Amino acid sequence: MPPLPLARLHHGLSLSLLRGRSPHHPWPPAADAFLRRGLASSSPSSSAAAAAAAAGREKSSRRTMAYLIGVAAAMVGASYAAVPLYRRFCQATGYGGTVQRRESVEDKISRHARDGTTTSREIIVQFNADVADGMPWKFIPTQREVKVKPGESALAFYTAENRSSAPITGVSTYNVAPMKAAIYFNKIQCFCFEEQTLLPGEKIDMPVFFYIDPEFETDPKMEGVNNIVLSYTFFKVNDS
User: Fold this and answer.
1) Residue 163 three-state SS
2) What is the C-alpha separation between 208 and 203, in angstroms, rounded?
3) Distance, CA of 145 to CA of 192 (rounded, Å)
């Protein structure tokens, strides 16, 4: 039989001694106090340790909650702050079909007109609309799709409606898919990156005037690309 730990041995011995006391022969007060102190010190539970552990868990929970709230606030702020940065990036690189500063859409149209460029391939441009979380607008494309040939321009519309009881200002970003076709998708007139304010219940139609570069048809990378999707997402502008 393995030896008992010292604390358990002391606890058992003390209990035995206390139970063995005779009412006719009580222990001396000093001995009785000594045995009771031994019982108290050998108890395996500790209220102070339990309280310290609970306090530590509560402090850790508060730190975790504060961290999560901070991350959520940063994500909301970054979604709107990214709009002007995204606009500058698109203008500098032509990403998403944004007109680059080197050659305007009018210059492209004039150049291809002088060269007598002709195309025969037909492309279907489809339209998509979304609103960010917390944006109380109904935002939809007025038409689902249009058919256009490279070298042609086309006009489409999106409709926005403020369904809240207060004026709301929004700003939109956009993207073109597939991404490799975006360099040939040029917007002549667009409501993207411009703040739009709608009164309660107000509804407006917003035009998108675009042009497909004729070089789309001769680029081997565009082989098999017969559909282009133009998507817009509206974000709510902070009141401040």
Assistant:
1) coil
2) 17
3) 19
| Other Cβ atoms closer than 10 A to 224 | 5
Quote the CA–CA distance of 228 and 123 in Å, as a whole number.
7
User: Do 222 and 184 meet the contact criterion of CB atoms below 8 Å apart?
Assistant: yes
For residue 159, count CB atoms less than 10 angstroms from its CB and return exposed for 0-12, middle for 13-18, buried for 19 or more. middle
Give 15-33 pLDDT, tens digit per residue. Answer: 444 444 444 445 455 445 5
The model's pTM: 0.57
Residues 51-82 as b or e (16 or more Cβ within 10 Å = b):
eeeeeeeeeeeeeeeeeeeeeeeeeeeebeee
Which residue is associated with the tokens 């690309």? 225
- Angle between helix 29-41 and 6-19 (nearest 10): 140
What the block records as the tokens of 220 is: 């081997």
